[in-house]
Amino acid sequence: MERASCLLLLLLPLLQVSATTLEPCELDDDDERCVCNFSDPQPDWSSALQCTVAVEVELRGGGRSLEQFLKYADVDADVQKYRDLIRSLRLKRLTVGAARVPAQLLMGVLRVLGYSRLKELTLEDLEVTGTMPLPPLEAIWPAVTTLSLRNVSWATGGAWLSKLQQWLKPGLQVLNIAQAHSLAFSCDQVRAFPALTTLDLSDNPGLGERGLTATLCPHKFPALQDLSIRNTGMETPNGVCTALATAGVQPVRLDLSYNSLRAAADPLTPGCVWPSALNSLNLSFAGLEQVPNGLPDKLSVLDLSCNRLNRAPRPDELPKVDNLKLDGNPFLNPEGPSPREDSMNSGGVPICARSPLAVGISGTLALLRGDRIFG
Ligand SMILES: *[C@@H]1O[C@H](CO)[C@@H](O)[C@H](O)[C@H]1NC(C)=O
Ligand SMILES: *[C@@H]1O[C@H](CO)[C@@H](O)[C@H](O)[C@H]1NC(C)=O
Ligand SMILES: *[C@@H]1O[C@H](CO)[C@@H](O)[C@H](O)[C@H]1NC(C)=O
To answer: CATH 3.80.10.10 region(s) of the chain?
Structure first.
């Protein structure tokens, strides 16, 4: 009996430790990163106060509705009086995820952060409800340079991008949109992104070439250098080329990996002139059995790794290219296992095994595949 109570006493500190780990927010030892997961039915929201010192803050709502906070979000409020306080925040990166959030609340938060040093904003697994009010004219908006959205749905449908644009200063450099519910933008309302150099539309398997044409609003991306359209249902390089030409975008690097590409262009489709600046093309993990027709004439980098090429490409099939990647194709290793499984490089490391990330992505995307994301 006594032994038992003794044991309990010894366990007490441990119990206390596990009680404190139930706190929804955790700040790391360097006061750099603060992560909150409000999945508890009755979360202690005040725990988030410790995050005010962090540079990187991640807030996850456990899938709940944040409507109750709407009363604190006054879009027309005079935030000027908090200016110095907000300026003193170290916050640079903010992630908001797993919640149903009224557009007005999201906007109120961005309004308050107008004086902050916020540079990177990530929204994940969010359902944004309600319409967005017109922004007050004199409002100061955050100078966000990187905006990442994954699985965010908007009550405003395809108008969301042009609305969201009104809440941010025009210096956006990187825009990532994955698992989008609507990429059919109202192009006449979208303003140009004068500083945007990187557009990543990867992991939108329902996009397709027709959708890409609709998404790349003509002349809105004048500074674009890097375009990633991994796993976006593209069918032929030529179809992508046509979409780029229609939109007048001139990327330097194009990532087409993880699309099931057909090598031969449809004989009825006319050839297409690739952007003259294009110097890197990624066609890896594209299931190709031969080099596709209609590639650009000259490239610095062409990545054809992890396809199903059964023989070495003939020089006349390839563009002029300085750096050609062909590893992970069956012709290099006729005795070996198929590239779908475990192509090994000389070190015995599987080079074409899908990364856990890619597997996770295609897993969730299988769920989204039926979604219509444009039209
Ligand atoms: C948040 O907590 C819930 C419940 O404990 C857990 O299932 C979920 O994975 C957590 N989310 C993150 C991003 O850690
Ligand atoms: C997308 O976000 C919603 C919440 O808005 C969530 O319920 C759903 O599970 C998420 N889907 C995926 C594939 O993560
Ligand atoms: C091409 O894409 C694959 C898969 O997305 C990636 O692993 C590889 O590094 C890329 N190649 C280049 C040259 O960037």
So the answer is: 23-168, 206-359
Which of 3.30.70.120, 3.40.630.30, 3.80.10.10, 3.30.70.660 is the CATH number of 206-359? 3.80.10.10
Ligand nearest to the CA of 36: 1
At 234-251, the pLDDT tens digits run: 999 999 999 999 999 999
Residue with tokens 């080099």: 291
Alpha helices in 24-91 (DSSP H): 83-87
Determine the pLDDT at residue 266: 64
Distance 39 CA to ligand 1 centre (A): 7
What's the gap in Å between 329 CA and the centre of ligand 3? 15
User: Which residue has tokens 């027309």?
Assistant: 76
Mutate to test the pocket of ligand 2, among 65, 125, 182 (most ligand atoms within 8 A of CB): 125
Q: How far is the CA of 125 from the centre of ligand 2 (A)?
A: 5
- What is the distance in angstroms between the CA of the first residue and the CA of the last residue of the chain? 72
Q: Confirm or reject: Cβ of 39 under 6 Å from ligand 1.
A: yes
| Homologous superfamily assigned to 23-168 | Ribonuclease Inhibitor (3.80.10.10)
* Beta carbons of 289 and 264 less than 8 angstroms apart: no
pLDDT over threshold 50, residue 188: yes
